[in-house]
């Protein structure tokens, strides 16, 4: 059947082409997301990949699988984006409340969360046998953030080799590099990634208890209770705002300053993001009584504590099916 679809697609049958590439759409989007850190950029890159594949189908010689051919196109599209200066976000306004001095400026301002619902269509056999990372770790915010700090070629090599499980020779062919260059880039990328914190949570009932306590403290603006749930080296981040807070003392100062100027969170709607606990945050309008979305918060868990709280603005809401308003 795939050969028949390929032949029909080469003859200009758009429906055959759609059927040929559809089984790979979700995994290609996820690959683009890992490369770019932004779901919006990933979707754009995916559309460009499929258009390029349609236009260039006559040049596909069948020496590799359709899947591998699509990965070649997608990876190179993402590399083109990374080498362009146009993907970085425009400057954003500061927080509307006084905030303490951040630990450092944010390094990955374009980061966006990835809805768990988009992971459902990815084949179970992924990743390949030579992959170094388990699927859950390779989608976590911490992993994706660390990947964004790698140079473009190292990023591509790491994802193709250690996440997707392509062999060094296959990766070299996909990227138009020598095998020696691939191995060198991979060694440097692994060194950087090994130094990054990519802890995962305990799961199960313990994790549910921890997230329940987080929601309770977060909605009540109980700063002491919130900080008590965090590891001593926890991070608080707010992309695309360009600052980050590190450690419980800095987090306490930040949340204390914020609590004095914002209304209570009236509802937190659970969603899945990057295989991690996440919620849409809603405040109550004092006039209408309705609930208004103010952002999406995602937490990372290390052992039995929270080691990262990331707040995203409302631009990502549509990806999670979160309405801008809810009835009170």
Automatic annotation (TrEMBL):
Record protein name field: Sigma-70 family RNA polymerase sigma factor
Domain RNA polymerase sigma-70 region as annotated: residue spans: 20-88
The keyword Transcription belongs to this UniProt entry's keyword annotation: yes
Family classification: Belongs to the sigma-70 factor family. ECF subfamily.
Xref: SUPFAM superfamilies: NTF2-like (SSF54427), Sigma2 domain of RNA polymerase sigma factors (SSF88946), Sigma3 and sigma4 domains of RNA polymerase sigma factors (SSF88659)
InterPro entries tied to this protein: NTF2-like_dom_sf, RNA_pol_sigma-70-like, RNA_pol_sigma-70_dom, RNA_pol_sigma-G_actinobac, RNA_pol_sigma70_r2, RNA_pol_sigma70_r4_t2, RNA_pol_sigma_r2, RNA_pol_sigma_r3/r4-like
GO BP of this protein: DNA-templated transcription initiation
Species, as recorded: Kribbella jiaozuonensis
Keywords assigned by UniProt, alphabetized: Sigma factor, Transcription, Transcription regulation
Domain SnoaL-like: 212-308
Superkingdom as given in the UniProt entry: Bacteria
Subunit structure: Interacts transiently with the RNA polymerase catalytic core formed by RpoA, RpoB, RpoC and RpoZ (2 alpha, 1 beta, 1 beta' and 1 omega subunit) to form the RNA polymerase holoenzyme that can initiate transcription.
Pfam families: Sigma70_r2, Sigma70_r4_2, SnoaL_2
Domain RNA polymerase sigma factor 70 region 4 type: 142-192
Entry-linked NCBIfam families: PRK08241.1, sigma70-ECF, SigX5
């Amino acid at each position: 059947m795939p050969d028949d679809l390929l032949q029909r697609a080469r003859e200009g049958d758009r429906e055959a082409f759609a059927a040929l590439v559809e089984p790979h759409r979700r995994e290609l989007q996820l690959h683009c997301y890992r490369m770019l850190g932004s779901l919006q950029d990933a979707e754009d890159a995916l559309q460009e990949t499929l258009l390029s594949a349609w236009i260039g189908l006559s040049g596909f010689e069948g020496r590799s699988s359709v899947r591998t051919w699509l990965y070649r196109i997608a990876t190179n599209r993402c590399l083109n984006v990374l080498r362009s200066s146009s993907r970085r976000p425009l400057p954003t306004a500061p927080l509307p409340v006084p905030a303490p001095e951040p630990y450092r400026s944010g390094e990955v301002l374009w980061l966006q969360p990835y809805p768990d619902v988009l992971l459902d269509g990815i084949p179970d056999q992924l990743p390949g046998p030579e992959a170094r990372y388990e699927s859950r770790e390779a989608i976590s915010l911490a992993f994706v953030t660390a990947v964004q700090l790698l140079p473009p070629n190292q990023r591509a090599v790491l994802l193709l080799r250690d996440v997707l499980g392509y062999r060094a020779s296959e990766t070299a062919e996909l990227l138009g590099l020598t095998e020696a260059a691939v191995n060198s880039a991979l060694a440097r990328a692994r060194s950087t990634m090994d130094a990054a914190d990519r802890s995962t949570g305990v799961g199960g009932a313990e994790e549910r208890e921890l997230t329940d306590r987080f929601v309770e403290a977060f909605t009540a603006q109980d700063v002491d209770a919130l900080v008590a749930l965090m590891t001593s080296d926890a991070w608080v981040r707010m992309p695309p705002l360009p600052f980050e807070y590190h450690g419980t003392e800095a987090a306490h100062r930040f949340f204390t300053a914020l609590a004095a100027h914002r209304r209570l969170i009236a509802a937190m709607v659970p969603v899945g993001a990057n295989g991690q606990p996440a919620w849409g945050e809603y405040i109550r309008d004092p006039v209408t009584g309705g609930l208004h979305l103010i952002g999406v918060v995602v937490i990372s868990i290390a052992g039995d504590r929270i080691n990262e709280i990331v707040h995203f603005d409302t631009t990502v809401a549509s990806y999670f099916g979160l309405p801008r308003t809810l009835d009170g």
